[in-house]
Amino acid sequence: MAEECVFCKIINKELPAAIVYEDDDILAFKDIKPIAPVHILIIPKKHIPDMTAVTENDVDLIGKIHLAAIKIAEELGISEKGFRLVNNCKQHGGQVVYHLHYHLLGGEALSIFA
Description:
There is one protein chain. It contains two helices and five strands, in the order αβββαββ. It is α+β, with helices and mostly antiparallel strands. It has a single domain, classed as HIT-like (HIT family, subunit A). The protein has a five-stranded antiparallel beta sheet, with helices on one face.
């Protein structure tokens, strides 16, 4: 794990987070600056800097993240009407923390973006 990575510090319980889901491979917690009524960050416990660093060895892990997103959406009551799962990749994609993460957004009708 990267020493200075804020998400690695959350995984290691060195920083607090409002955790909504955790298993051996994945951690999910409330975003501290939500942009929707439901805004959860879903991260692998393995430090992967961004989507372009995902390898064939990570295929199962990425699948587990997607299954966790569905489970979290169901538990938070947003799966019926729908939700958005977003990954920002690198600077031009809007990535701020360089630890692979997905934003689970929902709880209201989300705008369509171009």
